Amino acid sequence: MDETSQPIELLLSVTRDGSRTLGAQIEDQLRRAIREGALKGGTRMPSTRDLARQLGVSRRVVVGAYEQLAAEGYLALRQGARPRVSEAALRGDVTAPEPLGPAPPPRYDFQPRAPDVSHFPRTAWLRSLREALAVMTSADLGYGDPRGVEALRSALAGYLGRVRGVVADPARVVVTSGYSQGQGIVCRVLAAQGARRIAFENPSHAEQRRIAARAGLEIVPVAVDEAGIRVEELDRADVDAVVLTPAHQHPTGAVLTGDRRTALLAWLRARGAVAIEDDYDAEYRYDRAAVRALQGREPDRIVYAGSASKTLAPALRLGWLVVPPRLLNAVADEKDLDDCGTAHIEQQAFADFLARGELDRHLRRMRAQYRRRRDLLVEALADALPEATVRGIAAGLHATVQLPDGYDEQAILDQARRRRIGLTTMRDFWVQPGDGPPTLLLGYGRIPQHAIPAAVRKLAEAARAARTPAKDQMTRRAPL
Length: 480
Prior knowledge:
Elements: H1 22-36, H2 48-55, H3 59-71, E1 75-76, E2 84-85, H4 87-91, E3 108-109, H5 122-135, H6 150-164, E4 173-176, H7 179-192, E5 197-202, H8 206-214, E6 218-225, E7 228-229, H9 231-236, E8 241-244, H10 258-271, E9 274-278, E10 302-307, E11 319-322, H11 325-339, H12 344-355, H13 358-384, E12 389-391, E13 398-402, H14 409-418, E14 421-422, E15 424-425, E16 439-443, H15 452-466, H16 470-477
Parallel strand pairs: 3-14, 5-6, 5-8, 8-9, 9-10
Antiparallel strand pairs: 1-2, 4-11, 6-7, 10-11, 12-13, 13-16, 15-16
Helix pairs in contact: 1-3, 2-3, 5-12, 6-12, 7-8, 7-11, 13-15, 14-15
């Protein structure tokens, strides 16, 4: 008798009224039995037909479960032979699959990723959505212009000219699904037109550098200091384009000074280069007058890029580009190829939202809230971490906190994680790790005001626990 025809009993059961599918129940029980040692490596298993008969399920269900467990390394399957528990499982070589679902949120969230979305103006937005659906025709529900809904492009042109000094004819506005898509489109167009090298501020957002690299552009880091990007280094970099954040450098918080702006514009003209101006959070300013967008001084060489992610919510996935004429057709075509256009109903709603002044009202409310949080954060840091130097707080949604020698960013991250503190450090933004002093980025967009003092005390506790003793620092510096 062939061994595959011999019945083998297995302690297993399934239920049809549970939340898990029959196949998932089989997988879960066998996986657990193998992990816990109830089923040893090499143990023969019932055939798929036999186990299906025992459990009263379709053979297809068992075949699928066995194939999944084999793919994970728990079972060894071979044509014409009895399924067996893999010997790799006995040796502990099997890696359990990652648990599904998001990780539990931090108790204190200092990550500078997003605004306080709990204050999203739901009532006003719902009104704009209703108005959008009321005025949109059947034709408006088609694909339409890939640059975006005309009403929103006109509203954006007026708004950006009024609050950011952007030269923005509606025809040159392209609505995107967030900033990242916009940058990717422009980088692909530049590469198709012959660009090969693109400069990024150092430090800068690693994801944005990846977007440019994916478009086929070589990344060239250019240093940033307290006056913004170092234009003399940019001049030596031999690049075709540059991505920069002149109003509030991300992540240092520096503002590009007037003389650097003039030098940068002169470089763009002399080089025939293109700049992508990421104006990501310029609407939030506290201790200084608004800094005009750079694009207003050189609209034919600067692509202006913004989004609703920091002002309203990332979930809206609404961004915009103001594109120089020589790039416009190519950018519109690339946008069409990318996704045939951003969601029109949301665009029409945002147009109404802007026209009724709801964004202005929301920003006025949130500036006051964020300023109070920023002030409280600075006070708490002065008490709990007096050795820290706080910078970049005149605008935006995060503070740059530089620590003296002896602090290790990775060790602080580890200690913060144990205390359920969400934290980001400067190491994630340097083109080369270790380019600068130990520095924390403390966002105050997502942390409630009342929680800031306790959160900073916990953060200081984590930093102290991670600090390298002074004698160890001296040992590392001593000559061999």
